[in-house]
Automatic annotation (TrEMBL):
InterPro entries: GGGP/HepGP_synthase_I, GGGP/HepGP_synthase_sf, GGGP_HepGP_synthase
General function of this protein: Prenyltransferase that catalyzes in vivo the transfer of the heptaprenyl moiety of heptaprenyl pyrophosphate (HepPP; 35 carbon atoms) to the C3 hydroxyl of sn-glycerol-1-phosphate (G1P), producing heptaprenylglyceryl phosphate (HepGP). This reaction is an ether-bond-formation step in the biosynthesis of archaea-type G1P-based membrane lipids found in Bacillales.
Residues reported to bind sn-glycerol 1-phosphate: 11, 158-163, 188, 208-209
Segment forming the signal sequence: none
Reactions it catalyzes: sn-glycerol 1-phosphate + all-trans-heptaprenyl diphosphate = 3-heptaprenyl-sn-glycero-1-phosphate + diphosphate
Family stated for the protein in its record: Belongs to the GGGP/HepGP synthase family. Group I subfamily.
Pfam families given in the database record: PcrB
Pathway(s) where this gene product acts: Membrane lipid metabolism; glycerophospholipid metabolism
Protein name: Heptaprenylglyceryl phosphate synthase
Quaternary structure annotation from Swiss-Prot or TrEMBL: Homodimer.
Length: 233
């Protein structure tokens, strides 16, 4: 599964309601993949339910793991966040260690893709949950990106602004310091214009909330990203 070429991804929250009609539009939108993940109330039941509904379409579907209890088989890939700016080692490597200790013999390492998260919105649920240190200046963020690429050799560095639109200048700067590691950007993309702006710098743009608040705008982000040139290729 060539996630390295993905430019646009929709993130669906298994704890949120979506109609069949809207789901079909999302899955047939031309997006590169559907990422299933959320911070709150993610259960095996709602993950399986959403997966079964998305599975009717041909779009690749990835589970972004938030709890070991909600891991279900059958996804194309599994993205595993490690929150680089968390103050609690549990979110950096603790839960991962626990899961590997339990299930290490069964794991298919080829389908597990680690993501180095840098959470930049102090008010988002993920920041509170993981006790993220979000008081970062640009140099701090660049250092996390370099840590991800050169030290931990992570395939993905994810600038997570979930719920608010981030700083395109900083995304541009971070991109300038990454070569092998892919830069994911997520947060506050609720129009074609914002999608286009972030897609100029980020390798992959993640669109979440607007799916639930304005489906028309959500669909427009796909084409907006497709019109931009992937600078990483
Ligand atoms: C959330 O990065 C994604 O994890 C997308 O953010 O929901 O703000 O679009 P939004």
């Amino acid at each position: 599964m060539e996630y390295q070429s993905w430019r646009h991804v929709f993130k669906l929250d298994p704890a949120k309601e979506i109609t069949d009609g809207h789901l079909e539009r999302i899955c047939k939108s031309g997006t590169d993949a559907i990422l299933i993940g959320g911070s709150d109330d993610v259960t095996l039941e709602n993950v399986l339910d959403l997966m079964a509904r998305v599975d009717r379409f041909t779009v690749p579907v990835v589970l972004e793991i938030s709890t070991v209890e909600s891991v279900a088989p059958g996804f194309d890939l599994y993205f595993i966040p490690t929150v680089l700016n968390s103050r609690d080692p549990k979110w950096i490597k603790g839960l991962h260690h626990e899961a590997i200790r339990e299930y290490g013999d069964l794991m298919d390492w080829e389908e597990l893709i680690p993501e180095g998260y840098c959470i930049l919105n102090p008010d988002c649920k993920a920041a509170r949950l993981t006790d993220a240190d979000t008081l970062l200046n640009d140099d701090d963020v660049v250092a996390y990106a370099r840590l991800a690429e050169h030290f931990f050799k992570l395939p993905i560095f994810y600038m997570e602004y979930s719920g608010i639109y981030g700083n395109p200048e900083l995304v541009k700067e971070v991109k300038g310091h990454l070569s092998g590691t892919r830069l994911f950007y997520g947060g506050g993309i609720d129009s074609a214009e914002k999608a286009r702006e972030m897609a100029k710098f980020a390798d992959t743009v993640v669109v979440g909330n607007v799916i639930y608040s304005d489906i028309e705008q959500a669909i427009r982000t796909v084409e907006a990203v497709a019109e931009t040139v992937d600078q990483s290729l």
